[in-house]
Design a protein that fits this description.
Layout lengths: L5 H18 L6 H7 L7 H6 L2 H28 L3 H17 L8 H13 L11 H10 L12 H19 L6 H20 L4 H7 L2
Length: 211
Amino acid sequence: MPPSPEPARRRLVAAGERLFAERGIDNVSLREISRASGARNAVALQHHYGDRDGLLQAILDKHAARVDARRDPLLDAAASTARPDRARALAAALVLPEAASLQDDDGGREYLQIVAEVLTRERTARRGAPQPSIARWRDLVAPVLPPDAAATHRRFGAVLYVTITLARRAKLSDRPESAREAAMLTSSMVDVVAGMLTTPVSADTRAHLAP
């Protein structure tokens, strides 16, 4: 029986996480990733993942599954929360599952830096449907938004704020957050996101939205 390819695939993912986070997605060669993974074959990455985007997608999928698993129970709770408190519950459902990656020593901090680059670059590996829990979050947030807020891309702005803030935190420090630091960070971020979601659209902004 031939050996399982999974250990080699996991090593390639780990090497890709580290190098993409350190140097940027487009600044690392596929051969470098293969070598860093310990592969004897210089084209091991192409064999297992096809190309750079294939490996990048594998990294994103690995962590997105973990984030979805953490977010879904929070979305369940938010859906049944009384309306005055629902915006903050939904803000927490956006922030907390991603912030938990700061404590994930299996590439979590690297993932936060990589996903921020993916979200802000012109060429993205993501194709097709969005991350399932984010799609569900968007649907639950829609009724909470003030009139005309959806047209100002409030939901994407909130996702972008969370992603970039956590990526910066992950890059600035390679140590796990203390319980107090983590609580302060996430509570403050939830405050900001709740405000982003619920602040009324000004008359000035609404005038610019008019056709």
